[in-house]
Amino acid sequence: MYGISRGYIIAALPRTGSFLLCDMLARLGSVGYPQEYGLPEDEATWSGHHGHASHLSYFYDFFRFCSTPNGVFGCKLMWSQFAGLRHDIRRYTRIDGQGLEPIEAMTGPIRLVFLDRRDTVMQAISLVRAMKTNIWSSHRTLPPPPLAYSGTAIADAIELIGENRRQWESFFARHAIDPLRLSYEDVAQGDLAALFPFLGVEAPDRPANATQLKRQADDQSRAWRDRFAIDNTA
């Protein structure tokens, strides 16, 4: 389909630098243009951002605009988007199957890159701030509105992240998938050395960490982390 011969999915957890990693890879121009999948209810993505009149036309176009001319497809999916894409493939094409089979029918062989974060508390704080401000990347130039600390919100975010992690790990185990595991901390340092051989593509002859995106953690994030640690000390 669309000349796609192979692909990869960045299986992401919230606030793990997935926008950052996608931006790095897209700038290389040879390893797909990884973007997230807009579910039918996410009209802001498939209509507002991509300009499609129907989700069906967006669905088919998704595989085209996430692929580079050399036949490499890439996308990044949260668990709900991954489950939704598999559902939409069955709904729109009648292609069924177990595990990655429905997606591979559209793209050829798929490899999974699991993107996690070692510091779960900072991950949860980042998620709380993003949900409260609706600022999900440093593309936003306006300063964020002031926020009040909430230990309960951070604890709830930790649980949400954990549930998403369990969903991915369960899927890997059920289908005997051994993903490449990357962490936010490594991606933020531009350490992608293991990625290219795993994907079966030639490593770029220029740095893979070129991006205009920046880390969003700041003094407020670190202050919340310290307060959360004190509040939860036994």
Provide a quick synopsis of the model.
Helix content is 47%, strand content 11%. By secondary structure, it is α/β, with parallel strands linked by helices. The chain has a domain at 6-119 and 164-209: P-loop containing nucleotide triphosphate hydrolases (Rossmann fold, 3-Layer(aba) Sandwich).
What features would you describe in this structure?
This protein has 234 residues and is an alpha/beta fold. It has a domain at 6-119 and 164-209: P-loop containing nucleotide triphosphate hydrolases (Rossmann fold), CATH 3.40.50. 47% of the residues lie in helices and 11% in strands. The chain has ten helices and five strands. It has a five-stranded parallel beta sheet. Helix 6 (120-133) packs across helix 7 (151-174) and helix 6 packs across helix 10 (219-231). The mean pLDDT is 89.
Rg from alpha-carbon coordinates: 18 Å
Anisotropy-based shape: globular
Stretches with pLDDT under 50, minimum 5 residues: none
Q: List the total number of helices.
A: 10
Mean pLDDT: 89
Give the helix proportion (percent range).
40-55%
Q: Sheet with the most strands?
A: 5 strands, parallel
- Find the CATH superfamily of the domain at 6-119 and 164-209: P-loop containing nucleotide triphosphate hydrolases
Structural class: alpha/beta
> Quick one: CATH class of the domain at 6-119 and 164-209?
Alpha Beta
**SSE arrangement, N to C:** EHEHHEHHEHHEHHH
